[in-house]
Amino acid sequence: MMARRPAAAPKGLAFAIHDLLRMRDWADRHGVRMVIRLDHDVDNEDYEEVIAFRTNTKQTCFLLIWRTTESIIVQPLLGRPLVFRSVGHVLENLVEGQDNAMTDTTATD
Fold first, then answer.
1. Which domain of life is it from (predicted)?
2. Could you tell me if residue 95 is inside a domain?
3. Does residue 75 contact residue 81 with C-beta atoms inside 8 Å?
4. CB 72 within 8 A of CB 90
């Protein structure tokens, strides 16, 4: 009988329940949909759990979030991945980003 090779550890790990609840609450407050993708595979990399955020009108995700042993990775639809220490830091940054977007507007005639 041939021995089976152990499966490689996933690149992304599952979130703690309290972090999932915090992200769900954030999504509800901001009118977006949160989807939990289990055993997600991207470019031959396995992710135990990936959180996808999308608007209610579009199927494409505008934000993906996953956890490694050291950090939380946020991948916006456009741009480079961002690295955070915790889900709390991610949510604070998302709110600050929205506040900046709202205040960085100019009036037109």
1. Bacteria
2. yes
3. yes
4. yes
